[in-house]
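Sequence in, structure out. Go.
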Amino acid sequence: MAERTPQTYANHTRFDPPFHFFLLPVAAITIGLSVFDVIRRPGFRSAWYVVLALAFAILIFLTRTYALKAQDRVIRLEERLRLSGLLGEPLRSRIPELTEGQLIALRFAADNEVVGLVETCLSAGAKPADIKKAIRNWRPDYFRI
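Output:
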């Protein structure tokens, strides 16, 4: 098996080819063609095709959004469990103060630097992008879809 490229802030986002390069373009083209058709030949049937095309596009976006939200819930749970084992008091009791975005960003931080990043989050309200940029020892997440 080929080795994976080490993950960093610069390359941690990724495309899901079936979604980004097939479903999205097909949905956009379908909406465009159905709007073009309703302009050229106004009527109930062509208007209904616009509605169907929009429903198809919404279905695609909701499917993607629901999968990401489910992953976010699991990531938040994993990070709360990890932090409860790594942090001492009083930081451990402040884990609920971390935002969803902060918890999701902290998953990339190695155990030896997560304490400092949590302190930064709680004191300065660091944004997820700032947290990711501050990570020196990146802990990859290759399973995100």
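Check: The chain has two domains: 16-69, 87-140. The mean pLDDT is 93.
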